[in-house]
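Q: My labmate handed me this sequence with no annotations at all. I'd like to see what the chain might look like in three dimensions before we decide whether it's worth expressing. Could you predict it?
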Amino acid sequence: MSAATAPGSTAETAAAAASAHDELPTPFALIDGRQLRANVAAMQEAVAGLGAALRPHFKTHRTLPLARLQLDAGAIGLTVATTPQLATVTAELGCPVLVSSVLQADGAVASTLRAACTTGDVLFAIESHRSVELLRRALGPDTRADVVIEVEAGCRRSGVAPAECAALARVASRHGFVVSGVFSYPGQSYVPGQSGEAAEEERRVLSEAAVALARAGFEPRHISAGSTPTMRHARPGVATEYRPGTYVFGDRQQLLLGSVSRPQLSLTVVATVIAVHGERVVLDAGGKALGRDAPRWLEGYGLVDNGSDALIGRLYDHHSVIESYCGERLRVGDRVAVVPNNANSALALARSVWVTEDGERAVELTPCPEI
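A: Here is what I predict for the chain of 371 residues:
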């Protein structure tokens, strides 16, 4: 699918859509459809240029139309993080799926996992002997399934060292699983100035893990890497696929990390001004709309996208406060667009999500429910 030329600023799009849809109660999430398609096409082209495949994260948007857009653009499948996401993607889209989290494979979800194996091509994450045992127990003795080993790449969250991969692969094989490869998550890239080093560390550990599997007699067909901040540092030669997610929207975090440029932002939260006291402006979009993500290095909770670059300084459940607003005069009842710190959180919280193509017409999206 070809992408249309990117429109103007998200502020212009948000303002036009808001004026054309004044009946929509704020806050609501607004997606610039043309820019989103441009982002999807650009990432697909970039990954193809690396000689690799794209398997984007479904958790970023959790919507079937946007997932279909990514698949139509050339993605080989999707990455999911939870059992409900897995069930939705395999049942509704039938595309290959990589489960990037070690699932709680107990009796409550066993039937869902078995159904996913029969309706789609699924790669399950493993990272310990126990996770292998629990996955086999959930799937039952006769269900065939592929697994990928999570390798720790500097994030210090979950995953094993490359030297441990061969032993874990043998355990998985004894339990009847097909060991298909390795994957990692370079989460330390979400610190300013660390994305290049994180990408290099990920390449190193994935290469070592793949070599360890091959020497042990396994074929690492899937060597899966990536996060949105590391994609600009990706190099050909190690990873066979990449799993970024936030690139479709961008957000304030990605903007300041250098992962996206300002024109690439395609998601804002539209809010209404409910109080003005000098330079202090209060909006009706609080933590339940913008999310509360605020890493230590990032001041504020969002960016007002009207040319003022005013910061959301304080956050309450249903209110946010701009402490020092110095832009074009705002009055009670005006609408403004806010770039959230974390697009994933904002969209997960949104009670209303709309996509606009020309600033005048919008179509409502319904994200899939998630536990």
